[in-house]
Amino acid sequence: MPLIDRLLFSDQAPGVMKKALNMMSTRQNLISSNISNVDTPGFKASDIDFQAQLREALGSKGGLSLRATNSKHFGPSTSSIGDLTPDPFEEDAAAKSNGNNVDVDNEMAKMAENQIMYNATVQLMMKRGATVRAAVTELPQQ
Q1: HEC profile for 14-44?
Q2: Angle at 83 between CA 26 and CA 64, to 5 degrees
Q3: Domain boundaries in the chain?
Q4: For residues 65 and 55, is the Cβ–Cβ distance under 8 A?
């Protein structure tokens, strides 16, 4: 099944997209903090690699890795997606003479990329809602 179909029609899709939006929102705040501290002596820029965390939670084959509390119980509630939390790390960029390693151009590029990903995820959520609504009402999608 193609990735777009898995995102639109999987039972886990709403949870994955919600978690992705939360992580991207957290990353946007972190990037904003980096930019606002561009002149703070000794400040070290941080970032979140939520895409790697999400890939790990989804598993290498694109299916969700499930953790069962009982051998007979499986489902979205046992998914590792809900357990994902932001895991910030300090960037390895070269520091300036004051010990600050924030590169404004790099941070602005990351912010733009993050915003594009956020908007794309919102569009996927809206498309999924329109698809479900069309199926329920038996009307064509708009």
Answers
A1: HHHHHHHHHHHHHHHHHHHHHHHCCCCCCCC
A2: 110
A3: 3-137
A4: no
Nearest to 65 by CA among 1, 128, 12, 7: 12
Count of CB atoms situated within 10 Å of the CB of 61: 7
The whole-angstrom separation of Cα 96 and Cα 116 is 30
Tell me the pLDDT band of 3, cut-offs 50, 70 and 90: low
The owner of tokens 């489902």 is 75
pLDDT tens digits along 27-71: 999 999 999 999 999 999 999 888 777 777 766 554 544 555 665
Split at pLDDT 50, 70, 90, the class of 142 is low
Handedness of CA 96, 98, 104, 107 (dihedral sign): positive
Token duo for residue 88: 């910030």
The yes-or-no verdict on residue 100 having pLDDT over 80 is: yes
Instruction: Label residue 125 by pLDDT band (50, 70, 90).
Output: confident
Residue 79 DSSP symbol = B
